[in-house]
Write a structure and sequence with these properties.
Layout lengths: L1 E5 L5 H9 L7 E8 L3 E2 L2 E2 L2 E6 L3 H16 L2 E9 L1 E3 L4 E9 L2 H18 L2 E7 L2 E4 L4 H8 L4
Parallel strand pairs: 1-6
Antiparallel strand pairs: 2-8, 3-4, 5-7, 5-9, 6-8, 9-10
Helix pairs in contact: 2-3, 3-4
Length: 150
C-alpha cells in the first residue's frame, strides 16, 4: 500500500507499471485519475489551490485504503494526491488497485475514491473571475460514499 501527498505531478503509466511490477498474481489493475476542470458550479475556474494537514491527511488516506483491503481481496493499492496550486487539465489524484480479478479492483478503486472525496482532509480554493472561493463538499459525493456503509 502506497499513499503519497505531493505538489509534483505524477506519471500515470510509470506509477501503474511500478504498482504491478513483478507480481504474477495480478490479473486486474483498476485506476482512476482526477483532473482540474475549467468550470465548476457554472463559473469559470482559472486555477485551484489544494491545502492539507501533513501527517493527518496521509493517515486518513491510509485508513481508507486499509478499509478497502479489509472489504475486498486486493493485493495492493496506490493513492497519490496533489496539493498546492493547480491549473485546469492538471492531474489532481491517482487511485489504483491490483487484484486477481477485475470486480475486486473496480469496487475497491471506486470505494477509495468515494471515501477520499468525503473523508480525507483536503481544502480546495478555486480562482474564479469573481475572486477566490472555497469548494464545499458535494451532496453527490456524500451520496456516493453512503452506498458503501455496512
Amino acid at each position: 500500500m502506497t499513499v503519497r501527498v505531493q505538489a509534483a505531478d505524477f506519471d500515470v503509466g510509470a506509477e501503474l507499471t511500478a504498482l504491478r511490477a513483478g507480481d504474477a498474481r495480478v490479473g486486474a489493475l483498476a485506476s482512476f485519475v482526477g483532473l482540474v476542470r475549467d468550470i465548476n458550479d457554472g463559473a469559470r475556474v482559472a486555477g485551484m489551490t489544494l491545502e492539507h494537514y501533513p501527517g493527518m491527511t496521509e493517515k486518513a488516506l491510509e485508513a481508507i485504503v486499509a478499509e478497502a483491503k479489509g472489504r475486498w481481496d486486493i493485493y495492493d493499492a496506490l493513492v497519490i494526491h496533489r496539493v498546492g496550486p493547480l491549473a485546469p487539465c492538471d492531474q489532481i489524484v491517482l487511485v489504483a488497485v491490483t487484484s486477481a480479478h477485475r470486480g475486486e479492483s473496480f469496487a475497491a478503486c471506486e470505494f477509495i475514491m468515494d471515501y477520499l472525496k468525503t473523508r480525507a482532509p483536503f481544502w480546495k480554493k478555486e480562482a474564479t473571475p469573481d475572486g477566490g472561493r472555497w469548494v464545499d463538499a458535494r451532496e453527490t459525493d456524500d451520496s456516493a460514499a453512503l452506498r458503501w456503509q455496512k
